[in-house]
Design goal:
By secondary structure, this protein is α+β, with helices and mostly antiparallel strands. The chain contains four helices and five strands.
Length: 101
């Protein structure tokens, strides 16, 4: 990739992060906000693989954003399980399983 092509790509990527892609409770949500939440729970080997991760318990708003992020990026549904230690275990099929790959 040439330096100019790389610069155009990076500019387009940065611009896409400001794009409003959905609404939650009537409030606009950007791609960047979903990326931030998805990065908390995505599979570390490959983002398209199944998700199984335990995180600190998020606020209700952040939990709703996590559900939306998983659906947006993978097409799968997030299932959460409260743990005795106050944390939250998150699971989802991920992109590959959802599309049947």
């Amino acid at each position: 990739m040439t330096e100019t092509a790389k610069e155009r790509y990076e500019c387009a990527l940065a611009e896409s992060m400001t794009q409003v892609v959905t609404e939650i409770a009537g409030k606009p949500v950007t791609r960047g906000q979903l990326v931030e939440k998805f990065d908390l729970i995505k599979n570390e080997d490959h983002w398209k693989n199944p998700i199984s991760k335990t995180i600190d318990k998020p606020s209700d708003d952040d939990l709703e954003m996590l559900h939306e992020a998983v659906h947006f990026f993978t097409g799968s549904c997030l299932t959460t399980y409260p743990r005795d230690d106050g944390r939250l275990h998150c699971e989802a099929d991920g992109y590959f399983l959802t599309i049947g790959a």
